[in-house]
Automatic annotation (TrEMBL):
Species classification: Eukaryota, Metazoa, Ecdysozoa, Arthropoda, Hexapoda
Organism, scientific name: Riptortus pedestris
Catalytic site: 52 (proton donor)
Gene3D superfamilies: NADP-dependent oxidoreductase domain
The protein's name in its UniProt record: Aldo-keto reductase
Binding positions (substrate): 114
Any single Pfam family the record assigns to this protein: Aldo_ket_red
Site keyed Lowers pKa of active site Tyr: positions: 81
Chain ranges of the NADP-dependent oxidoreductase domain: 19-292
Family according to the record: Belongs to the aldo/keto reductase family.
UniProt keyword terms in alphabetical order: NADP, Oxidoreductase
KW Oxidoreductase (keyword) present: yes
Gene Ontology terms for molecular function: oxidoreductase activity
Cross-referenced PROSITE patterns: ALDOKETO_REDUCTASE_1, ALDOKETO_REDUCTASE_2, ALDOKETO_REDUCTASE_3
């Protein structure tokens, strides 16, 4: 039997598994099989989003696996995210209802505000101007947050959180929040170890999820460094007899940071799960930590003129 993935606890008492499967860029035609394989392997945590355009196909896998008795809904932890074109308060509950319909579930375990930036409302998920830059909406993220709080009140979301928020934006939000976020989902790997933002969040009882933990090799632009090919990582991989990806996933688990590597390849979904039979020494954790170079793979360039673009702050 597959090992049960250890969890951390949110301040509201809900458990959050330390390892989940990412689904960004998982094509609709491949994600159903990927999620089914993951459930068989032992994954119970799935990271989804409306904008990934594949929630229906993720839902198909959940439905099949629940139907065949492989897993129960209450054993699953499903995250989804509110997209930026639905930040007006009255659009938030309908957006979550659409996600729930696509996923074929009655409630979401964790609903995140995907970005602190509101876009022009409408069907277009990436409304852009003639220069290719995103057209902002009139909302501030506090308005969208009030909508997320409503989702909790209606029993549609168990927990709510944020993603891609910098430390100033978090404090802005905490000034008005009636329900505090349980989690901030951010890019995190040894090239961007995010220690300051993690400490800042934890001091406020906000857990952190590490996205793009493998350095998002399919997002890399030609001049970006390839984390999975880092020579230091290769040396550690040989030392521990674990793949570079397994070292990167275990690095977050050692830190107590939930981590959501994405794959649609069955053998990788399997090997990325085999991270509970070894640990990385303190000294080697420090070496991995020392690789930090503040390199961001997910820059979302088309939004860098938005007034709430989060990445101009140090952390
Ligand atoms: N909140 C946000 O704004 C945000 C932003 C980015 C990501 N995320 C979430 O975080 C998840 C993970 O991030 P990510 O997708 O950017 O990147 P990632 O997990 O760092 O990397 C995924 C890429 O690595 C490949 N891969 C997976 N396992 C591997 C292995 N063992 N060896 C070598 N290559 C491997 C995958 O290929 P195959 O699939 O072809 O196997 C895929 O191309 C996303 O899917 C999404 O759920 C959230």
């Amino acid at each position: 039997m597959a090992p049960k993935v250890p969890s951390i606890k949110f301040y509201n008492g809900y458990e959050y598994p330390l390892l989940g499967l990412g689904t960004w860029k998982s094509q609709p035609g491949e994600v159903t099989e990927a999620v089914k394989a993951a459930i068989d392997i032992g994954y119970r945590h799935f990271d989804c989003a409306h904008v990934y355009g594949n929630e229906k196909e993720v839902g198909e896998a959940l439905k099949q696996k629940i139907k065949e008795g492989a897993v129960k809904r209450e054993e699953l932890f499903i995250t989804s995210k509110l997209w930026c074109n639905s930040h007006k308060k009255e659009l938030v509950v309908p957006a979550l209802k659409k996600t729930l319909e696509n996923l074929g579930i009655e409630y979401i375990d964790l609903y995140l505000m995907h970005w602190p930036m509101g876009f022009q409302a409408g069907d277009n998920v990436f409304p852009v101007d003639a220069k290719g830059k995103v057209i902002p909406g009139e909302t501030y993220f506090t308005e969208a947050w009030a909508g997320l709080e409503e989702c909790v009140g209606l029993g549609l979301a168990r927990s709510i959180g944020i993603s891609n928020f910098n430390h100033k934006q978090i404090d802005e939000l905490l000034k008005v929040a009636k329900i505090n976020p349980v989690n901030n989902q951010i890019e995190c790997h040894p090239y961007l170890n995010q220690q300051r933002l993690i400490d800042f969040c934890l001091e406020r009882n906000i857990t952190v999820t590490a996205y793009s933990p493998l350095g998002s090799p399919d997002s890399i632009k030609s001049d970006d460094p390839v984390l999975l090919e880092d020579p230091v990582l290769k040396t550690l991989s040989e030392k521990y007899k674990k793949s570079p990806a397994q070292i990167l996933i275990r690095y977050q688990i050692e830190r107590g940071i939930p981590v959501i590597p994405k794959s649609v390849t069955k053998s990788r979904i399997q090997s990325n799960f085999e991270v509970f039979d070894f640990s990385i020494s303190k000294e080697d954790m420090a070496i991995l930590h020392g690789l930090n170079r503040n390199t961001r793979m997910v820059k979302f360039d088309m939004t860098d003129t938005h007034k709430d673009y989060p990445f101009y702050e140090d952390y």
